[in-house]
Amino acid sequence: MATATASAHDYAMFINGKWVTSKSKIDVLNPATEESIGTTPAASKEQVQEALETAREAQKGWARRTGVERGRVLRKWADLVDQKRDHFAKLLAMEVGKPLKEAYGEVDFGNSWFRYYAEYDRRIEGDILPADRPNEQMWIVPQPAGVAVGIIAWNFPFAVAIRKIAPALIAGCSLVLKPHEDTPITALELMKLADEAGLPPGVCNVVTGTGETVGDALVRSDIPGVISFTGSCETGKLITKAAADNVTLVSLEMGGKAPFIVMDDCDIDAAVDAAVFSRLLNCGQICIANERTYVHKKVASEFLEKFVNRIKSVKVGNPLDEGTQLGPKVSKIELDKVARYVDEAKKAGATAVTGGKTFDRSGGYEKGYWYEPTVLTNVKQDMAIMRNEIFGPVVPVMEFDDFEQGIAYANDSKFGLAGYLFTNDVHKIMRGIRDMEVGELYINRGAGESIHGYHTGWKQSGNGGDDGKYGLEHYLRRKTVYLKYNG
User: What is the value of pTM for the model shown?
Assistant: First the structure.
Protein backbone atom coordinates (compact mmCIF):
# COMPACT_ATOMS: atom_id res chain seq x y z
CA MET A 1 0.00 0.00 0.00
CA ALA A 2 0.99 3.64 -0.26
CA THR A 3 3.03 5.12 2.53
CA ALA A 4 1.22 7.43 4.94
CA THR A 5 3.95 10.05 4.93
CA ALA A 6 5.73 11.97 2.21
CA SER A 7 8.65 12.09 4.62
CA ALA A 8 9.18 10.89 8.19
CA HIS A 9 7.32 13.91 9.56
CA ASP A 10 4.87 14.93 6.83
CA TYR A 11 1.57 13.10 7.24
CA ALA A 12 -1.37 12.83 4.89
CA MET A 13 -5.07 12.17 5.44
CA PHE A 14 -6.73 8.84 4.69
CA ILE A 15 -9.67 9.08 2.25
CA ASN A 16 -11.05 6.18 0.21
CA GLY A 17 -8.06 4.02 1.02
CA LYS A 18 -5.60 6.63 -0.28
CA TRP A 19 -3.29 9.15 1.35
CA VAL A 20 -4.32 12.69 0.52
CA THR A 21 -2.52 15.98 1.19
CA SER A 22 -3.63 19.59 1.18
CA LYS A 23 -2.01 22.96 0.62
CA SER A 24 -2.28 23.98 4.27
CA LYS A 25 -0.38 22.18 7.03
CA ILE A 26 -0.66 22.07 10.82
CA ASP A 27 2.37 21.48 13.05
CA VAL A 28 1.99 18.84 15.74
CA LEU A 29 4.18 19.72 18.72
CA ASN A 30 5.69 17.53 21.42
CA PRO A 31 4.34 19.18 24.60
CA ALA A 32 7.46 18.23 26.56
CA THR A 33 9.88 19.93 24.15
CA GLU A 34 7.74 22.17 21.89
CA GLU A 35 9.48 20.54 18.91
CA SER A 36 7.50 19.52 15.86
CA ILE A 37 6.97 15.78 15.55
CA GLY A 38 5.10 16.09 12.28
CA THR A 39 2.76 18.06 10.12
CA THR A 40 -0.75 17.07 9.09
CA PRO A 41 -2.99 18.51 6.38
CA ALA A 42 -5.64 21.09 7.11
CA ALA A 43 -8.46 19.63 5.04
CA SER A 44 -10.64 21.85 2.90
CA LYS A 45 -14.42 21.66 2.95
CA GLU A 46 -14.24 19.98 -0.44
CA GLN A 47 -12.02 17.24 0.95
CA VAL A 48 -14.39 16.72 3.87
CA GLN A 49 -17.25 16.36 1.40
CA GLU A 50 -15.21 13.85 -0.61
CA ALA A 51 -14.59 11.77 2.51
CA LEU A 52 -18.30 11.79 3.39
CA GLU A 53 -19.40 10.84 -0.13
CA THR A 54 -16.76 8.12 -0.24
CA ALA A 55 -17.99 6.76 3.07
CA ARG A 56 -21.60 6.80 1.87
CA GLU A 57 -20.76 4.77 -1.20
CA ALA A 58 -18.50 2.30 0.64
CA GLN A 59 -21.04 1.74 3.41
CA LYS A 60 -23.48 -0.04 1.13
CA GLY A 61 -21.13 -2.91 0.37
CA TRP A 62 -19.74 -3.04 3.90
CA ALA A 63 -23.25 -3.35 5.38
CA ARG A 64 -24.03 -6.27 3.08
CA ARG A 65 -21.12 -8.25 4.45
CA THR A 66 -21.98 -10.63 7.24
CA GLY A 67 -21.16 -9.77 10.81
CA VAL A 68 -18.62 -12.58 10.79
CA GLU A 69 -16.81 -10.98 7.87
CA ARG A 70 -16.76 -7.59 9.56
CA GLY A 71 -15.61 -9.13 12.85
CA ARG A 72 -12.75 -10.85 11.06
CA VAL A 73 -11.41 -7.46 9.96
CA LEU A 74 -11.55 -6.06 13.49
CA ARG A 75 -9.70 -9.07 14.90
CA LYS A 76 -6.98 -8.83 12.27
CA TRP A 77 -6.63 -5.11 12.94
CA ALA A 78 -6.19 -5.83 16.65
CA ASP A 79 -3.46 -8.36 15.89
CA LEU A 80 -1.62 -5.80 13.80
CA VAL A 81 -1.83 -3.19 16.55
CA ASP A 82 -0.32 -5.69 19.00
CA GLN A 83 2.65 -6.09 16.68
CA LYS A 84 3.26 -2.32 16.69
CA ARG A 85 2.50 -1.76 20.38
CA ASP A 86 5.86 -0.15 21.16
CA HIS A 87 5.57 2.16 18.16
CA PHE A 88 2.13 3.45 19.15
CA ALA A 89 3.08 3.90 22.81
CA LYS A 90 6.13 6.01 22.00
CA LEU A 91 4.13 8.12 19.56
CA LEU A 92 1.49 8.74 22.24
CA ALA A 93 4.14 9.78 24.75
CA MET A 94 5.47 12.33 22.27
CA GLU A 95 2.12 13.46 20.90
CA VAL A 96 0.17 13.88 24.16
CA GLY A 97 3.00 14.09 26.70
CA LYS A 98 1.73 11.22 28.83
CA PRO A 99 4.23 8.98 30.64
CA LEU A 100 5.26 5.90 28.70
CA LYS A 101 3.62 3.51 31.16
CA GLU A 102 0.29 5.29 30.68
CA ALA A 103 0.82 5.33 26.92
CA TYR A 104 1.17 1.54 26.86
CA GLY A 105 -2.00 1.34 28.93
CA GLU A 106 -3.87 3.45 26.38
CA VAL A 107 -2.69 1.30 23.48
CA ASP A 108 -3.81 -1.90 25.18
CA PHE A 109 -7.10 -0.45 26.39
CA GLY A 110 -7.89 1.05 23.00
CA ASN A 111 -7.03 -2.13 21.15
CA SER A 112 -9.35 -4.12 23.39
CA TRP A 113 -12.33 -2.38 21.74
CA PHE A 114 -11.46 -4.02 18.43
CA ARG A 115 -11.69 -7.47 19.97
CA TYR A 116 -14.70 -6.68 22.16
CA TYR A 117 -16.85 -5.36 19.34
CA ALA A 118 -15.66 -8.13 17.01
CA GLU A 119 -17.57 -10.44 19.35
CA TYR A 120 -20.79 -8.78 18.17
CA ASP A 121 -20.33 -10.44 14.80
CA ARG A 122 -23.18 -12.80 15.79
CA ARG A 123 -24.83 -10.77 18.56
CA ILE A 124 -26.61 -7.88 16.86
CA GLU A 125 -30.12 -9.18 17.28
CA GLY A 126 -33.64 -8.20 16.33
CA ASP A 127 -37.04 -9.31 17.58
CA ILE A 128 -39.94 -11.42 16.39
CA LEU A 129 -43.17 -10.20 17.96
CA PRO A 130 -46.65 -11.66 17.96
CA ALA A 131 -48.74 -10.00 15.25
CA ASP A 132 -52.17 -8.49 15.79
CA ARG A 133 -53.55 -9.98 12.59
CA PRO A 134 -53.78 -13.58 11.42
CA ASN A 135 -51.24 -14.99 8.96
CA GLU A 136 -48.77 -12.25 9.72
CA GLN A 137 -45.25 -11.97 11.12
CA MET A 138 -43.94 -8.87 12.89
CA TRP A 139 -40.20 -8.33 12.97
CA ILE A 140 -37.96 -5.59 14.35
CA VAL A 141 -34.80 -5.65 12.26
CA PRO A 142 -31.54 -3.91 13.26
CA GLN A 143 -29.77 -2.09 10.44
CA PRO A 144 -26.73 0.22 10.26
CA ALA A 145 -27.25 3.94 10.84
CA GLY A 146 -25.30 4.62 7.63
CA VAL A 147 -22.32 6.94 7.65
CA ALA A 148 -20.99 7.69 11.13
CA VAL A 149 -18.89 10.72 12.00
CA GLY A 150 -16.49 10.46 14.92
CA ILE A 151 -15.01 13.63 16.43
CA ILE A 152 -12.57 13.08 19.26
CA ALA A 153 -10.59 15.05 21.83
CA TRP A 154 -6.83 15.22 22.24
CA ASN A 155 -6.39 13.48 25.60
CA PHE A 156 -6.74 9.82 24.48
CA PRO A 157 -6.33 10.08 20.70
CA PHE A 158 -5.48 6.43 20.05
CA ALA A 159 -7.96 4.72 22.37
CA VAL A 160 -10.91 6.96 21.58
CA ALA A 161 -10.29 6.62 17.84
CA ILE A 162 -10.81 2.86 18.19
CA ARG A 163 -13.68 3.51 20.60
CA LYS A 164 -15.48 5.11 17.63
CA ILE A 165 -14.17 2.88 14.84
CA ALA A 166 -14.90 -0.56 16.28
CA PRO A 167 -18.63 -0.24 17.14
CA ALA A 168 -19.38 1.71 13.97
CA LEU A 169 -17.75 -0.89 11.74
CA ILE A 170 -19.22 -3.98 13.39
CA ALA A 171 -22.67 -2.38 13.09
CA GLY A 172 -22.17 -2.06 9.33
CA CYS A 173 -21.59 1.70 9.30
CA SER A 174 -18.77 3.44 7.52
CA LEU A 175 -16.91 6.18 9.37
CA VAL A 176 -15.28 9.54 8.87
CA LEU A 177 -13.05 10.28 11.86
CA LYS A 178 -11.73 13.70 12.82
CA PRO A 179 -8.94 13.59 15.43
CA HIS A 180 -8.04 16.77 17.30
CA GLU A 181 -5.53 18.94 15.45
CA ASP A 182 -3.13 18.80 18.41
CA THR A 183 -2.95 14.97 18.45
CA PRO A 184 -3.83 13.45 15.05
CA ILE A 185 -0.77 11.30 14.39
CA THR A 186 -1.63 8.06 16.19
CA ALA A 187 -5.01 7.92 14.42
CA LEU A 188 -3.28 8.33 11.06
CA GLU A 189 -0.70 5.70 11.98
CA LEU A 190 -3.59 3.38 12.89
CA MET A 191 -4.92 3.70 9.35
CA LYS A 192 -1.63 2.39 7.96
CA LEU A 193 -2.86 -1.02 9.11
CA ALA A 194 -6.30 -0.80 7.50
CA ASP A 195 -5.44 -2.42 4.17
CA GLU A 196 -3.60 -5.31 5.76
CA ALA A 197 -6.53 -5.85 8.13
CA GLY A 198 -8.77 -6.30 5.10
CA LEU A 199 -10.78 -3.09 5.35
CA PRO A 200 -12.28 -2.03 1.98
CA PRO A 201 -11.43 1.47 0.74
CA GLY A 202 -13.74 4.19 1.97
CA VAL A 203 -15.15 2.31 4.95
CA CYS A 204 -12.96 4.20 7.42
CA ASN A 205 -11.57 7.63 6.59
CA VAL A 206 -9.53 10.12 8.66
CA VAL A 207 -9.64 13.84 7.90
CA THR A 208 -7.48 16.32 9.79
CA GLY A 209 -7.77 20.01 10.50
CA THR A 210 -9.50 22.45 12.79
CA GLY A 211 -12.96 22.21 14.25
CA GLU A 212 -13.93 25.54 12.70
CA THR A 213 -13.42 24.15 9.18
CA VAL A 214 -13.34 20.35 9.20
CA GLY A 215 -15.55 19.71 12.20
CA ASP A 216 -18.12 22.25 11.08
CA ALA A 217 -18.35 20.74 7.58
CA LEU A 218 -18.79 17.25 9.01
CA VAL A 219 -21.61 18.08 11.39
CA ARG A 220 -23.53 20.33 8.99
CA SER A 221 -23.61 17.70 6.25
CA ASP A 222 -26.80 15.80 5.49
CA ILE A 223 -24.83 12.59 4.82
CA PRO A 224 -24.10 11.29 8.36
CA GLY A 225 -26.68 9.13 10.06
CA VAL A 226 -25.00 9.53 13.43
CA ILE A 227 -22.36 11.82 14.97
CA SER A 228 -20.40 10.51 17.94
CA PHE A 229 -18.47 13.22 19.78
CA THR A 230 -16.00 13.20 22.65
CA GLY A 231 -14.82 16.60 23.84
CA SER A 232 -15.79 19.80 25.57
CA CYS A 233 -19.28 20.82 26.60
CA GLU A 234 -19.14 24.01 24.56
CA THR A 235 -18.18 22.20 21.36
CA GLY A 236 -20.79 19.51 21.95
CA LYS A 237 -23.52 22.15 22.16
CA LEU A 238 -22.37 23.69 18.87
CA ILE A 239 -22.39 20.27 17.21
CA THR A 240 -25.91 19.59 18.44
CA LYS A 241 -27.17 22.89 17.05
CA ALA A 242 -25.44 22.39 13.70
CA ALA A 243 -26.72 18.82 13.32
CA ALA A 244 -30.28 19.77 14.21
CA ASP A 245 -31.07 21.12 10.73
CA ASN A 246 -30.62 17.59 9.33
CA VAL A 247 -32.14 15.88 12.39
CA THR A 248 -28.90 13.87 12.70
CA LEU A 249 -28.58 11.67 15.77
CA VAL A 250 -25.84 13.03 18.04
CA SER A 251 -24.14 11.08 20.85
CA LEU A 252 -22.18 13.35 23.18
CA GLU A 253 -19.56 12.45 25.80
CA MET A 254 -18.47 15.78 27.18
CA GLY A 255 -16.80 17.43 30.16
CA GLY A 256 -16.95 16.51 33.80
CA LYS A 257 -16.36 17.87 37.27
CA ALA A 258 -16.20 14.61 39.18
CA PRO A 259 -16.70 14.86 42.96
CA PHE A 260 -14.55 12.61 45.16
CA ILE A 261 -16.29 12.03 48.51
CA VAL A 262 -14.24 10.68 51.44
CA MET A 263 -16.33 9.53 54.42
CA ASP A 264 -14.98 9.16 57.96
CA ASP A 265 -15.54 5.37 58.00
CA CYS A 266 -13.47 4.52 54.91
CA ASP A 267 -9.94 3.18 54.40
CA ILE A 268 -8.06 6.50 54.31
CA ASP A 269 -4.93 5.10 52.68
CA ALA A 270 -6.97 3.51 49.90
CA ALA A 271 -8.85 6.79 49.42
CA VAL A 272 -5.57 8.71 49.18
CA ASP A 273 -4.19 6.27 46.60
CA ALA A 274 -7.33 6.53 44.50
CA ALA A 275 -7.56 10.32 44.83
CA VAL A 276 -3.98 10.80 43.62
CA PHE A 277 -4.33 8.34 40.75
CA SER A 278 -7.71 9.72 39.68
CA ARG A 279 -6.38 13.28 39.58
CA LEU A 280 -2.91 12.91 38.07
CA LEU A 281 -3.56 10.26 35.41
CA ASN A 282 -2.65 11.84 32.06
CA CYS A 283 -1.73 15.07 33.92
CA GLY A 284 -5.33 15.35 35.08
CA GLN A 285 -6.52 15.50 31.48
CA ILE A 286 -9.34 12.98 31.69
CA CYS A 287 -13.03 13.77 31.80
CA ILE A 288 -13.65 11.41 34.75
CA ALA A 289 -10.78 12.85 36.83
CA ASN A 290 -11.08 13.69 40.52
CA GLU A 291 -11.86 17.38 39.93
CA ARG A 292 -13.01 18.32 43.46
CA THR A 293 -12.31 16.39 46.63
CA TYR A 294 -14.77 16.52 49.55
CA VAL A 295 -13.48 15.11 52.86
CA HIS A 296 -15.46 14.50 56.05
CA LYS A 297 -14.29 16.92 58.73
CA LYS A 298 -13.42 14.08 61.15
CA VAL A 299 -10.72 12.71 58.83
CA ALA A 300 -9.82 15.86 56.90
CA SER A 301 -6.48 16.49 58.63
CA GLU A 302 -5.29 12.89 58.25
CA PHE A 303 -6.39 12.67 54.64
CA LEU A 304 -4.91 16.01 53.66
CA GLU A 305 -1.51 15.30 55.23
CA LYS A 306 -1.18 11.95 53.47
CA PHE A 307 -2.59 13.30 50.22
CA VAL A 308 -0.26 16.29 50.05
CA ASN A 309 2.77 14.12 50.84
CA ARG A 310 1.84 11.80 48.00
CA ILE A 311 1.36 14.68 45.58
CA LYS A 312 4.75 16.12 46.54
CA SER A 313 6.44 12.77 45.84
CA VAL A 314 5.19 12.48 42.26
CA LYS A 315 8.03 12.33 39.74
CA VAL A 316 7.55 14.88 36.95
CA GLY A 317 9.70 14.56 33.86
CA ASN A 318 10.29 13.35 30.32
CA PRO A 319 7.35 11.15 29.28
CA LEU A 320 9.74 8.75 27.55
CA ASP A 321 11.59 8.01 30.80
CA GLU A 322 10.19 4.88 32.44
CA GLY A 323 10.18 6.36 35.93
CA THR A 324 8.14 9.45 35.01
CA GLN A 325 4.74 9.65 36.69
CA LEU A 326 3.55 13.03 35.40
CA GLY A 327 4.19 14.71 32.08
CA PRO A 328 3.33 18.16 30.70
CA LYS A 329 0.03 19.68 29.72
CA VAL A 330 -0.81 19.05 26.07
CA SER A 331 -0.53 22.65 24.84
CA LYS A 332 0.18 26.23 25.88
CA ILE A 333 -3.53 27.04 25.64
CA GLU A 334 -4.31 24.28 28.13
CA LEU A 335 -1.42 25.27 30.39
CA ASP A 336 -2.54 28.89 30.50
CA LYS A 337 -6.12 27.83 31.31
CA VAL A 338 -5.00 25.82 34.35
CA ALA A 339 -2.75 28.66 35.55
CA ARG A 340 -5.62 31.13 35.20
CA TYR A 341 -8.00 28.97 37.26
CA VAL A 342 -5.47 28.58 40.07
CA ASP A 343 -4.52 32.26 40.10
CA GLU A 344 -8.20 33.24 40.28
CA ALA A 345 -8.79 30.78 43.13
CA LYS A 346 -5.85 32.14 45.13
CA LYS A 347 -7.09 35.69 44.65
CA ALA A 348 -10.49 34.55 45.96
CA GLY A 349 -8.90 33.15 49.13
CA ALA A 350 -7.74 29.62 48.27
CA THR A 351 -4.39 28.41 49.61
CA ALA A 352 -1.94 26.35 47.57
CA VAL A 353 -0.48 23.98 50.17
CA THR A 354 1.74 22.55 47.46
CA GLY A 355 2.38 23.66 43.89
CA GLY A 356 0.23 26.46 42.56
CA LYS A 357 2.22 27.67 39.55
CA THR A 358 3.94 26.70 36.33
CA PHE A 359 7.40 25.18 36.63
CA ASP A 360 10.36 27.53 36.53
CA ARG A 361 12.02 27.55 33.14
CA SER A 362 15.13 25.76 34.42
CA GLY A 363 16.32 22.33 35.44
CA GLY A 364 14.87 20.53 32.44
CA TYR A 365 11.71 22.63 32.07
CA GLU A 366 13.11 25.25 29.68
CA LYS A 367 10.71 24.02 27.00
CA GLY A 368 7.28 22.45 27.25
CA TYR A 369 4.02 23.04 29.08
CA TRP A 370 4.66 22.10 32.70
CA TYR A 371 2.47 22.78 35.71
CA GLU A 372 3.27 21.84 39.29
CA PRO A 373 1.07 19.20 40.96
CA THR A 374 -1.14 21.37 43.12
CA VAL A 375 -3.42 21.00 46.14
CA LEU A 376 -5.71 23.90 47.08
CA THR A 377 -7.44 24.34 50.44
CA ASN A 378 -9.70 27.07 51.82
CA VAL A 379 -11.87 26.72 48.75
CA LYS A 380 -15.59 27.42 48.69
CA GLN A 381 -18.35 25.76 46.74
CA ASP A 382 -19.13 28.86 44.69
CA MET A 383 -15.54 29.39 43.46
CA ALA A 384 -14.89 28.90 39.74
CA ILE A 385 -12.30 26.25 40.55
CA MET A 386 -15.11 24.18 42.11
CA ARG A 387 -17.54 24.85 39.27
CA ASN A 388 -15.51 24.63 36.04
CA GLU A 389 -13.48 21.75 34.65
CA ILE A 390 -9.78 22.30 35.42
CA PHE A 391 -8.38 19.45 33.29
CA GLY A 392 -4.97 19.61 34.91
CA PRO A 393 -2.91 18.41 37.91
CA VAL A 394 -4.79 20.60 40.41
CA VAL A 395 -7.01 19.37 43.27
CA PRO A 396 -9.24 21.64 45.36
CA VAL A 397 -10.00 19.99 48.73
CA MET A 398 -12.98 20.99 50.84
CA GLU A 399 -14.42 19.70 54.13
CA PHE A 400 -18.04 18.72 54.78
CA ASP A 401 -20.04 17.91 57.92
CA ASP A 402 -22.09 14.82 57.12
CA PHE A 403 -23.14 12.45 54.35
CA GLU A 404 -26.12 14.55 53.26
CA GLN A 405 -23.97 17.64 52.88
CA GLY A 406 -21.34 15.69 50.94
CA ILE A 407 -23.93 14.42 48.47
CA ALA A 408 -25.44 17.90 48.15
CA TYR A 409 -22.03 19.38 47.33
CA ALA A 410 -21.37 16.58 44.82
CA ASN A 411 -24.65 17.17 42.99
CA ASP A 412 -24.27 20.95 42.98
CA SER A 413 -22.81 21.03 39.47
CA LYS A 414 -23.93 21.43 35.88
CA PHE A 415 -21.85 18.32 35.07
CA GLY A 416 -22.70 14.71 35.80
CA LEU A 417 -20.20 12.41 34.14
CA ALA A 418 -18.40 10.58 36.97
CA GLY A 419 -18.23 10.55 40.75
CA TYR A 420 -16.36 8.77 43.55
CA LEU A 421 -17.51 7.62 46.97
CA PHE A 422 -15.32 6.12 49.70
CA THR A 423 -17.23 4.53 52.58
CA ASN A 424 -17.58 1.11 54.20
CA ASP A 425 -21.19 1.73 55.21
CA VAL A 426 -23.44 -0.28 52.89
CA HIS A 427 -26.37 2.01 53.62
CA LYS A 428 -24.40 5.05 52.48
CA ILE A 429 -23.24 3.11 49.42
CA MET A 430 -26.81 2.32 48.45
CA ARG A 431 -27.91 5.90 49.04
CA GLY A 432 -24.96 7.14 46.99
CA ILE A 433 -25.96 4.88 44.11
CA ARG A 434 -29.51 6.18 44.36
CA ASP A 435 -28.75 9.87 44.84
CA MET A 436 -25.48 10.83 43.11
CA GLU A 437 -26.28 12.53 39.81
CA VAL A 438 -23.62 10.97 37.59
CA GLY A 439 -23.51 8.47 34.76
CA GLU A 440 -20.47 6.65 36.16
CA LEU A 441 -19.92 6.01 39.87
CA TYR A 442 -16.75 4.59 41.42
CA ILE A 443 -17.16 3.22 44.93
CA ASN A 444 -14.00 2.50 46.97
CA ARG A 445 -11.81 2.55 43.86
CA GLY A 446 -10.15 4.97 41.48
CA ALA A 447 -10.81 5.96 37.88
CA GLY A 448 -11.06 3.58 34.96
CA GLU A 449 -14.09 2.25 33.12
CA SER A 450 -14.47 -1.17 31.50
CA ILE A 451 -15.11 -1.61 27.79
CA HIS A 452 -18.33 -3.55 28.38
CA GLY A 453 -19.83 -0.94 30.72
CA TYR A 454 -21.53 2.22 29.49
CA HIS A 455 -19.58 5.46 29.53
CA THR A 456 -22.32 8.06 29.67
CA GLY A 457 -22.94 11.45 31.22
CA TRP A 458 -25.87 13.14 32.92
CA LYS A 459 -26.77 16.82 32.84
CA GLN A 460 -24.42 18.83 30.62
CA SER A 461 -21.88 16.00 30.48
CA GLY A 462 -23.74 14.57 27.53
CA ASN A 463 -26.40 12.45 25.90
CA GLY A 464 -25.73 8.95 24.65
CA GLY A 465 -22.29 7.53 25.29
CA ASP A 466 -19.79 4.83 24.46
CA ASP A 467 -18.90 1.22 25.28
CA GLY A 468 -20.73 -2.03 25.77
CA LYS A 469 -24.04 -2.98 24.23
CA TYR A 470 -25.56 0.43 24.91
CA GLY A 471 -22.69 2.24 23.19
CA LEU A 472 -23.37 0.17 20.08
CA GLU A 473 -27.03 1.18 19.86
CA HIS A 474 -26.62 4.62 18.30
CA TYR A 475 -24.80 3.06 15.32
CA LEU A 476 -27.96 1.05 14.61
CA ARG A 477 -31.51 1.91 13.65
CA ARG A 478 -34.51 -0.36 13.86
CA LYS A 479 -36.96 -1.24 11.10
CA THR A 480 -40.32 -2.74 11.97
CA VAL A 481 -41.57 -5.22 9.35
CA TYR A 482 -45.18 -6.45 9.03
CA LEU A 483 -45.14 -9.53 6.80
CA LYS A 484 -48.46 -10.90 5.53
CA TYR A 485 -48.40 -14.44 4.17
CA ASN A 486 -50.94 -16.74 2.51
CA GLY A 487 -52.50 -18.89 5.19
Answer: 0.96
